[in-house]
Every structure is written in C-alpha cells, then in structure tokens.
Design a protein that fits this description.
328 residues; alpha/beta; Rossmann fold; 14 helices; globular
C-alpha cells in the first residue's frame, strides 16, 4: 500500500525471513507480536485508527483483535463463504468488502456487505518471448500452454495435467507445457505428470525474474480452478494480455470476462470428462490468431481498467476516509 496516502503497518504473529526481506525491500513497517494477543490489542489501541484484515476462509485473528480494541475493521473477503453474520458485523463495526462480485453468487441474497472492491496485481513486465521460452528449455518456435499458481486443493492442478494429456493426444509434440508453483499437492502432481507420460516442465515456486520469464513464455494461460475468491494470477496474466482458459465458475467469469474462454466445471455438473472440451478451447486459441489477438487486447484493457494497484488503493483510501469521518 505504498501508493496510499494513509500510513500502514503490517501486524503479524511471526514472519518468515522471506516476508521480512520483502517488507524491508518495500520500506514498509512489519511488527511481529509473537504469541502475545494482548500485545496485539495494545498495539492496535495505541497506533491504529482502522484495522484492515483479510478473510481467506480460515480463522481471522484480525477480527478478534479489532473487536477487542473497539476499532473499525475493514474485512477484505477473499473466500466464497461468509465469515460472520450481519449482526456480528454491525456489532463489531466491520465493513465487509468482497474482492469480486463473483463471490456474491455463493452468498445468500439478503447478505449485507459494504461494497465490492476488486483485488489487484502488480503488472508483469514484458520481455523477449523467445528468450523466455528458451530459459525453461522450450523450443522458442512452438507454443507454450502454462499455469502459475499453488499446487493444491480447489486450484485443481491435476486438471491441468489431464487437459495437457488431451492436448498431447490430439497434437503430439506440438504444444509445450509449463506448470509453475508448489503446494501440498506438489508430489501428487509430479507423480501425475510421470504417470501421464507428457513433457511438463515444473520449475517449482518462482519469484522475481524467473516469475517474469515464466509468464512471458506462456502463450495460453490454462488455469482450471474452482471456488476462487479473486485469482491474482488471472490479473497477472491479463497484465501481459495472455488469453485465459478456465472453468465457468462465477468468480472466474466475473474476473476474467472477455479476456478468456470458459469450459464447464464437472465439480457441480456431474460431467464425467470436462478435459476434452478444455483442451479444444485451448487448441482453438493457439490455432486462431484473430481470436488470440482479440483476447490479448481485451486482457490488456481489462487489467488497466480494473486490476491495477493504483485503482484498488484509491478505492480503499476513499473507504478509509469515510470510516474516519464517521468516527470523529
């Protein structure tokens, strides 16, 4: 939040060394409170006007600390389930902020929230595509279908492998595959790649220049995911104009829009094999340059209009000002 006119302090129990290094590089204040909950409440009472917490589906200590300190709370909801009842939100002065409109499809129709403020992503710098492909050992003249994201749960990384198998069956040797990320399902996904006997490059979790090269190497971003709250990797792909293929879940359609194409997710429909149609959608984009170009331009435009950090910070700054004016 360096772009904000408000001062921000990041409060956490214990940070990894990587997180400490990130905050030092960004010149942002990081406060570690250990296991002392009262220390957190005291710190908030002495230093904060508003507490901004993020709900991702699990317990959110920030809500507890904010309520105990009797401070207004901004709760960014990044999961398609509801963290508390409207009555609880009102009693604790919590402003519930969904990070996409698609999340609301999973909520009861009468559930109250303050407003939707879409999440954001830092833009991925553009670099030479052929060099980026060569960095991962790919043939620069052949297309790359890739995925960037955690290898776990509803991110559906195994579906990427199944779809890659369908693509490989239809056009053996034509498409190259890049699967970037790490997670609790990592070993299982590596086993699935070996079992399916398809050439998928898996470089693990990437940051910095390596991450930039990975995105630039990808011609079609294949991300078959379910029950997202926003999907930052979608915004990162759009910042480079990479056409996206994903499932037609509410959040995916809302966030990606005209920057991608959508297959039917078997999680809700009972379709036995959605992977063949997803493979066809992917191959159609690789073969149809006009359609690829259209989605490329749509993605660039959509990112600039909706998912830049500047846009998100401006909207939160406005919300903070409204809350402060209500409490003074």
């Amino acid at each position: 939040m360096r772009r904000s006119k408000h001062q921000h302090t990041y409060l956490t129990f214990e940070a990894s060394q990587r997180r400490r290094d990130e905050f030092k590089y960004l010149n942002l204040e990081l406060v570690e409170i250990g296991e002392d909950e009262q220390k957190a409440v005291d710190f908030i009472n002495q230093n904060a006007d508003i507490l901004h917490a993020s709900f991702s589906g699990g317990p959110e200590p920030g809500m507890f600390f904010g309520c105990k300190a009797n401070k207004p709370i901004v709760l960014s909801c990044q999961a398609p389930n509801i963290p508390l009842t409207p009555g609880e939100a009102k009693d604790c002065h919590i402003h519930i902020i969904p990070v996409s409109r698609g999340i609301l499809e999973y909520w009861p129709q009468d559930y109250q929230y303050d407003r939707v403020i879409y999440s954001c992503a830092e833009p991925i710098p553009e670099c030479d595509k052929q060099k980026a492909k060569a960095h991962f050992g790919f043939n620069p003249e052949k297309p790359v279908v890739g995925r960037v994201g955690r290898l776990e749960g509803m991110k559906r990384p195994e579906d990427f492998v199944f779809i890659a198998r369908q693509i490989w069956n239809q056009v053996p040797g034509y498409v190259q595959f890049l699967l970037v990320g790490e997670g609790s399902d990592g070993d299982g996904i590596r086993y699935a790649v070996r079992r399916e006997k398809i050439p998928v490059v898996m470089p693990g979790y990437l940051t910095g220049v390596d991450k930039i090269l990975a995105y630039n190497a990808i011609d079609v971003f294949l991300y078959p995911t379910s029950v997202e709250g926003f999907g930052i990797v979608f915004a990162e792909a759009m910042s480079l104009g990479i056409p996206i293929v994903t499932y037609s879940d509410p959040v995916n359609v809302d966030v990606v829009g005209a920057a991608g194409v959508f297959g039917v997710d078997n999680l809700y429909t009972g379709i036995e094999n959605p992977w063949f149609s997803m493979a066809s959608l992917t191959l159609d984009l690789l073969r149809n340059q006009r359609e690829w170009n259209k989605l490329h331009q749509n993605g660039l435009r959509r990112y600039k209009q909706r998912y830049t950090p500047e846009r998100m910070v401006q909207e939160f700054d406005q919300l903070y000002e409204e809350i402060i004016n209500e409490t003074v």
